[in-house]
Amino acid sequence: MPDLYVPPLLSSGSSVLTAPVAIGVAAMSTAEMLTSGLKGRGFSVLHTYRDHLWQSGDKSSPPSMAPLALDPLDLSEEKGSVEAAPALQGDLRHLTLAGENQENGEVQQQMCGEKSLPEASEDPSVRGLNPDPTDSRTLQEQMDELLQQCFLHALKCQVKKADLPLLTSTFLGSHMFSCCPAGQHLDIKKSSYKKLSKFLQQMQQEQIIQVEELSRGVESIVAVDWKHPRITSFVIPEPSPTSQTIQEGSREQPYHPPDIKPLYCVPASMTLLFQESGHKKGSALEGGEVRTIIVSYAKKNDLVNVDNRNLVKLDPILCDCILEKNEQHTVTTLPWDSLLSRCLERMQPAYQVTFPGQEPIVKKGKICPIDITLAQRASNKKVTVVRNLETYGLDPCSVAAILQQRCQASTTVTPAPGSKDSLQVQIQGNQVHHLSQLLLEDYQLPRKYIQGLEKAPKPSRKK
């Protein structure tokens, strides 16, 4: 498929014009443009700057215009919009085109320091639900059928009575999307319903479910009639093996969480204690190794109390390493557990991260957890912010793309404040619940490495 055609003027020189220089008709929707990675013919060009029509006029030049300073998260007025925000973001992007700054044959994008979100692959089934040319149904009819299928599949196989009340957004992102057949893409905006709330109202009218607004502006499914004929007669499609993946170039790689080990570095004040075991200042040790070294040191120097072997006598080296100044002349013995804990507390923290198939990486300091926070924007809208994904081998752009689909909300990836090479993901609305499922269940990350999960909204019944 030929690359997206852009007038040659845009690629000449180092500056990029922001004023319109062509008139054309879009050949695909914004979502399809993003899905195709901005490859292919996106527009049918009717008139361009410096063409024959321009030459027959006054031959004026387009004005110089500064980029619009808009916040992409505020471009969508309605939560759940996945097309409005990207459409306006397109006006903000500076595109480097026609052979300049191309890597691996892909057009690179820059937008106020942001990275573009990787979308679905170029499978023809992404743009159309059914690539079969013999299917005469419209895209809307196909999407309506897929919506019904995922809805019934989720109720029959995934949702239990104990899950109720269930946020409608959670039902869509955590249950309906996971029931979508491989190779197909569930997009409510392309159905006749357009909105999830309208679709669920129809299902409520058919008495399959009951939906209530348990808190202001937040709807939840509070009851399901599992004996309804449409659920009991629904035939579950044959399952296909699926796995959560992160995109790496043109390949899909299964994500496996790294093996993380806390380490302890020998400080200058404790070198005498560790030098007998062959370690010097800066040596990184695991907790078990530290324990073995301390036990060996105590036994070798006859420091174990003969009458009570749970106590260790403190020689001058141990006193200097682990005692406070006011304890130097008052504390002469310590229990084993206290001795070991004091040693670890006075050593410098470090950690080792090992990704599958890679060499271990040792870094000083404590490992930063994935940080989830909620922020209130000037427009009085909440956004969910996620930081430190890279530490755990997660690509922020891939995570943002998954959340954009699951939450049906606009997402952006921006540089993290105070960091030179770290990115943060922002999602419109409180999406902590979706993040919790993605990180804990899909990516299998230990809970201790994630902070902020308690900020998830909790539905409560009306009294």
Features:
single chain, 463 residues, alpha+beta, Arc Repressor Mutant, subunit A, MDM2, 4 domains, 5-stranded mixed beta sheet, 4-stranded antiparallel beta sheet, 14 helices, 20 strands, 20% strand, elongated, disordered N terminus, translation initiation factor activity
Mean pLDDT: 76
Portion in helices: 25-40%
CATH architecture of the largest domain: Orthogonal Bundle
Structural class: alpha+beta
Domains counted in the coordinates: how many? 4
Low-confidence sequence ranges: 1-17, 68-128, 240-252
Task: Name the overall outline.
Answer: elongated
* Number of E-type strands: 20
Strand-helix topology:
Elements: E1 22-26, H1 30-35, E2 43-48, H2 52-55, H3 84-92, E3 94-95, E4 109-110, H4 124-127, H5 139-157, E5 166-167, H6 168-176, H7 196-205, E6 209-215, E7 218-224, H8 229-232, E8 245-248, E9 251-254, E10 259-265, H9 271-274, E11 284-286, H10 287-300, E12 311-313, H11 316-322, E13 333-335, H12 336-346, E14 348-354, E15 361-364, E16 370-376, E17 382-387, H13 396-407, E18 411-415, E19 423-428, H14 432-442, E20 450-451
Parallel strand pairs: 16-20
Antiparallel strand pairs: 1-2, 3-4, 5-7, 6-7, 8-9, 10-11, 10-14, 12-13, 14-15, 16-17, 17-19, 18-19
Helix pairs in contact: 5-6, 6-13
InterPro entries: EIF2D (IPR039757), eIF2D_SUI1 (IPR039759), PUA_eIF2d-like (IPR048248), SUI1 (IPR001950), SUI1_dom_sf (IPR036877), SWIB_eIF2D (IPR058886), SWIB_MDM2_dom_sf (IPR036885), SWIB_MDM2_domain (IPR003121)
Region (Disordered): 104-134
Keywords: Initiation factor, Protein biosynthesis
